Amino acid sequence: MPFRLAMRSLSRSPGLFATATLLLALGIGATTALFSVVQGVLLAPLPYHEPERLVRIWSELAARNVAYFPESPTNLEDFRGQATQFEDIAGVATGGGTVRRPGGEARQVQNANATWNFLGVLGVRPILGREFTAEDGAFSTTDVPAGAQFPANAFAIPRVAIISHALWQAEFAGRPDAIGQLLDLDGASVEVIGVLPQGVRLHMGPAAGVAPDVDIWLPLRVDFASAPRNNVFLHIVGRLRPGVSVGQGRAEIEAIAERIYDENPVMRAAGARMWLMPYGDEMVADVRGTIWALLGAAAFVLLIACSNVANLLLVRAAGRARELAVRVALGAGRARLVRLMLLESAVLAALGAAGGLLLAWAILALILDAAPANVARLDAVGIDFSVLAFACGTALLTTLLAGLAPALQASRLAVAGALRDRSGSGLAGGNSLRRTLVAGEIALSFVLLIGAGLMVRSFIELHRTDPGFDAADVLTFQVNLPFQRYPDFEQRRQLFYAFQDRLAALPGVADVAAATPLPLTGQGFSGRYASVQPTGEDTAYRQANYRLVLPGYFETMRTPLLAGRHLTRDDEINERPVAIVDDVLAAASWPSEDPIGKQVWVRLNAPEPVPLEVVGVVRRQMQNNLHEAPRESIYFTAGSTGQFGVNAWVLRSALAPDALLPLVRRELAALDAELPLVRVQPMQAFVTAAMARTRFALQLIGAFGVAALLIAAVGLYAAIHFLVRQRRAEIGVRMSFGARPADIFRQFLRHGMLLAGIGIAIGLAAAVWLAHTLSGLLVNITPTDPATYVVIAMMFVAIALVASSVPALGAARVNPITVLREE
């Protein structure tokens, strides 16, 4: 009966009922969806055994401005042998490859070359077959190709593999007899010895550049005697002993590192220091600020929605003054009035919570669809019981905020005055509360719109950023040459140039070349360089990106040549010691000199530095994202490393990929029918992905900001509308004594703009303070960007003018005769 009474009472104001329910649903839904993301990405434990004991270990080279530097196998062995606070320490590196069963078709896969103990450190066990053993990871010279040079002679070919659950299903249909089967992996035969559980992923931070979804795990077989300390490629994970803190583990690793640096002056001169961090912290470090900022935006929307609902209920309660007075006159106690109005608020809150949960599913789906692909664990996010409890708690809080204030006002109603008041506005005592709520809504909305405005400016700046190349009409793909079939680099070089010539002869192809790696992939390798001959101290060294290219690469990518010339095939074939540098390196090394003809000292195939002549300078290409700090790059001929060459191809053509790809595959098959074409995608896809994080934050903060602005506008309109309704008698009297409609209009417009001004002033101060939380997302602008604040403030003033003008215009149109007759 009470519920039916509350519903009947609410149904008398259908517009207010629907608006309040929608506002609550929006606030609860947005907050619940974002809390689900926070829970899944930041708070939920990692899907490993006792993940709280896992840590990540890496180096920083402060003198070379390198924040993340992987480790060498030799360093890893020292950590394992000397650390006593760890159960074990392991390393991994990932890469692409192709696999085929005998007689089957090639399949593109992600490989993980890991120390034999890596899966054990994570606490992951096969569901079928066995784990790797130390024998599987033992080095043997019999498995090294004849005539191989470093680094190939330091790594033996793996003979066994553990495959993922997905590859097990795809290649073996989930059959148990997969164990013992042979797979051809880039020309090497490996035996399947185990299958991992479903959903096992390699979670690491984006700086590591590892592939999260690994198809084939291989034991790393390294000759520590032939692998120098500066051959770095491993990403290290350690498991602390029970009861050992992260601080204790960090202290021990730093102590071991100091002993390593004493024997390695290169690392000491580079300002090396060790970093150790709980596994989960490092994994989400780059998105933590984004997610918390989005959750804050959703919480603001919830607060604004609750404030507006409370404001609407205050207005409704004031309009029901005569009704409530009649109830009191007929014997209804004040406690009963409070219960009735609280029940109405509870019904609103319950319906808002139900709608909010439904809306949360939709908002969460939109978030997951719009989120960048490299956000760790986002695929496992979903609304769970803890989030349901959070939504229920939010609904309860909303009930108190939205229902308690008007209920208490109703309990203090002056019955005689309310019965005499024909305007139905007898609850006048809530004016100050309503004005406070409206000013608070405007302030919170202003903060959100400032955040959205900063993100819009950042997105515009991203579009203006020159990535150093023209991605339009460029198709990319990879061709991985199996080392077992092409052990000699001369064979590889002949295939590179033959393939390039055949593709260049295709109709509609403007340019074609290859490189390792491509820009904006976040992949690659780096090394030392010096612009003067380094001393034994190695203090002249800096760090640069190393890039291998075929002649024609810069022409294909439309990367401007700023000075000198391009690399040629003669440079490659005659092994000339030449290189091209980018303008960042040229400016850092020879700021007021011509770099052409200068020398850069680099480490390529041996620990000793070798000089290369600079023959060209090109525009910098962005490597990881569009807002990265400048990092020098050096471009070598494809054979400079002496072994591997290039594998990522770029082809510029106006033809559609569907028409072009069959021709490319035909030309590749003519050279080697067993080589697959993998990772086919337009270059523009890399540019789009580089903007994904900023676009993601912009879309959500922008949506929350617009929603908050609309809610605040509704609140301002309702406040002025009620004020007009409350003072109708006064307006009638003033107009009967000669007040002009324009005077009445200006009075109420002034009142609305005063509220808006107070809200904007408070919001401005809060925005300046809170906008710094977005600093990690901003591109080429500051959190206090004046243009953004001015534009948003002007927009708010315009919205406030509209929201205040409509009820003010209604006040100016009051008919004094009608009002005085009513009184």
Keyword list:
6-stranded mixed beta barrel, 16% strand, elongated, alpha+beta, 823 residues
Overview in brief:
The protein is of the alpha+beta class and 823 residues long. Helices cover 49% and strands 16% of the residues.
Structure in words:
With 823 residues, the protein is an alpha+beta fold. The strands form two sheets. Strands 3-4-9-6-8-7 form a six-stranded mixed β-barrel. A hairpin with a 4-residue loop joins β1 (54-61) and β2 (66-69). The chain starts with a helix and ends with a helix. The model is unreliable at 423-429 (pLDDT under 50).
Number of strand segments: 22
The average pLDDT value, as a whole number, equals: 81
Q: State Rg.
A: 34 Å
Number of H- or I-type helical stretches: 25
Task: Note the beta-strand portion.
Answer: 15-25%
Low-confidence stretches: 423-429
In helices, the fraction of residues equals: 40-55%
Helix and strand layout, with pairings?
Blueprint (H helix, E strand, L loop, with lengths): L1 H10 L2 H30 L10 E8 L4 E4 L3 H10 L3 E15 L6 E8 L3 H5 L5 E2 L30 E4 L1 H8 L9 E4 L2 E8 L20 E4 L15 E6 L5 H18 L1 H5 L2 E7 H5 L1 H35 L1 H9 L4 H37 L14 H27 L3 H6 L10 H34 L9 E5 L10 H16 L4 E8 L8 E6 L11 E8 L3 H5 L3 E4 L4 H5 L4 E5 H7 L9 E4 L7 E9 L14 E5 L10 E6 L3 H15 L6 E5 H8 L1 H35 L1 H9 L4 H30 L15 H27 L3 H7 L1
